[in-house]
Design goal:
P1 Nuclease, 3-stranded mixed sheet, 3 strands
């Protein structure tokens, strides 16, 4: 009987920890999977072929949550260093983010923020000398970080930890501003990630071209500008009016992230991909 109680308690604790971990994920699992699914819809065949050995029989939606899930790993990198990969603090005198492209970032120990993280992953995937293991690591992180870069509060304010310290209620449930945008507003649609992706994806060439005429620095600048407005809460009680006003922003950011992720991967793995249509416009010195 005692063993059954112990086993039952262990099971309960495991489930509880899993729920706590899931509630802390950026964009939530559904958000990242939506982005991964949209990206898959826009990959070229050459890119799909190049990704095959890196994906290890998985899909972009499947690997999109890996960088969050691995934060339960007890190693020093995941416990003490990986968290800074997921966000960036806005510079005090500007709303524009910049990255020094004069030095190729190939050492993950030098990553200080999400922008560094994306370029580390890009550089590693482009480098013929990178090991297969390093490229798999970088692909998994890149898929996740492109998603995070489009969540407004991943480029928010340092003092409130990107909205994590701003308490709100969502239909009477206690939460915070960051979690509201990570998870609550997406879950409120009551859609699976495949349904959500299908509903918001686009094949409009003009929209795709507009989204792809951008760079990771611009994605974060967009997020910061959205966050600056979203900090201006009229009430800490979130209800139907807030959902009506802000769900279109959520859908646009998920759509942009998915299309831009596909463009970036096509840019990396398919040299025939057409810029601004099937590939992402990137700074000239990293092409």
């Amino acid at each position: 009987m005692l063993s059954k109680i112990v086993n039952g308690t262990s099971y309960f604790l495991a489930i509880t920890l899993l729920l706590i971990t899931n509630n802390a994920l950026a964009w939530g699992q559904n958000g990242h999977r939506i982005i991964g699914q949209i990206a898959e819809n826009h990959l070229t065949e050459q890119t799909r072929l190049a990704l095959t050995p890196l994906l290890e029989n998985q899909s972009l939606p499947q690997i999109s949550t890996w960088a969050d899930e691995m934060r339960s790993d007890p190693s020093e990198f995941w416990q003490k260093k990986s968290s800074r990969w997921h966000y960036i603090n806005a510079p005090s005198n500007s709303n524009h983010f910049t990255h020094d492209h004069s030095h190729t970032l190939l050492n993950k120990e030098n990553v200080k923020n999400i922008l560094d993280g994306m370029y580390f992953a890009i550089n590693t995937l482009k480098d013929d000398k990178s090991s297969l293991e390093a490229k798999r690591f970088s692909l998994r992180f890149l898929v996740h970080l492109v998603g995070d870069s489009h969540q407004p509060f991943h480029a928010g304010r340092k003092e409130d930890r990107g909205g994590n310290k701003i308490k709100v209620t969502f239909f009477g449930q206690n939460t915070n501003l960051h979690s509201l945008w990570d998870t609550k507003l997406i879950e409120n649609e009551n859609l699976s990630f495949t349904e959500f992706a299908q509903f918001i994806d686009s094949n409009n060439a003009e929209i795709i071209s507009e989204y792809l005429a951008s760079s990771p620095e611009q994605w974060l600048t967009e997020s910061h500008n959205f966050a600056s407005e979203l900090y201006k809460l009229k009430s800490d009680e979130i209800g139907y009016s807030y959902i009506y006003q802000n769900t279109p922003i959520i859908k646009m950011r998920l759509q942009q992230a998915g299309i831009r992720l596909a463009g970036l991967l096509n840019n990396l793995f398919d040299n025939t991909a057409k810029p601004l249509e099937k590939a992402l416009k990137m700074p000239a010195n990293i092409n």
